[in-house]
Design a protein that fits this description.
Shape: globular
Number of domains: 1
CATH topology: Rossmann fold
Structural class: alpha/beta
Radius of gyration: 18 Å
CATH class: Alpha Beta
Largest sheet: 5 strands, parallel
Order of helices and strands: EEHEEHHEHEEEEHEE
Strand content: 25-35%
Helix content: 25-40%
């Protein structure tokens, strides 16, 4: 074991007394930057690109999802275009699950179900293949950010049409003031960084 680290009840601790999960959390949070007035004036955008380019930070973020969901018996990880794919695909791999993309209109080649939803700064539409999920399959929905919950709620409606058993919604970031959890009432919601 390297100097400065000691085992205490199964958790690594540094010389300052913090454990490894706390260090990982601080590392993740330090790599998310705030960009004012993007994509429109009045929006404070939480930019994850510094986190994604940092190998340790990106690994720590994926590991947080894996630790949370590894015992949930997930059949499929469903993620929304586009940043949800960044977390959803490696999580599906780590969990031994399949991956299902939810896309913007006109991007999926086969027959789809369609749902519209409101964003904090506009409206949009999502699609999923009508054979993407089998009735009763255990599905985890993953995205980078929970804001108003419109995207996630539209995805929940798409999955309901397919008969999915949604085990939960996981997000790296939550903008708590926008109350997105309310749009997902009745579903288990997990977030790792809250603003």
């Amino acid at each position: 074991m390297s100097a400065g680290w000691a085992r205490a009840k199964g958790a690594r601790r540094d010389a300052g007394g913090r454990n490894a999960p706390e260090e990982a959390q601080l590392h993740i949070e330090s790599l998310i930057r705030a960009i004012p007035d993007f994509p429109i004036p009045g929006i404070l955008f939480r930019d994850i690109t510094p986190l994604l380019k940092d190998a340790g930070g990106f690994r720590a973020a994926i590991d947080r999802f894996v630790q949370r969901y590894k015992s949930e018996r997930v059949d499929l990880v469903v993620a929304m275009e586009a940043r949800g794919y960044i977390f959803g695909a490696p999580l599906a791999y780590a969990l031994g699950a399949g991956f299902v993309p939810v896309r913007k209109p006109g991007k999926l080649p086969a027959t789809t179900f369609v749902e519209s939803y409101a964003l904090e700064y506009g409206t949009n539409t999502l699609e999923i293949h009508d054979d993407a999920v089998g009735n009763g399959q255990r599905v985890l929905v993953v995205d980078d950010l929970l804001a108003t919950g419109g995207t996630a709620a539209a995805t929940a409606r798409l999955l309901a049409k397919l008969g999915a058993d949604v085990v939960g919604f996981g997000f790296l970031i939550e903008l708590a003031a926008l109350r997105g959890r309310e749009a997902l009432a009745g579903h288990e919601v997990t977030t790792f960084v809250s603003y």
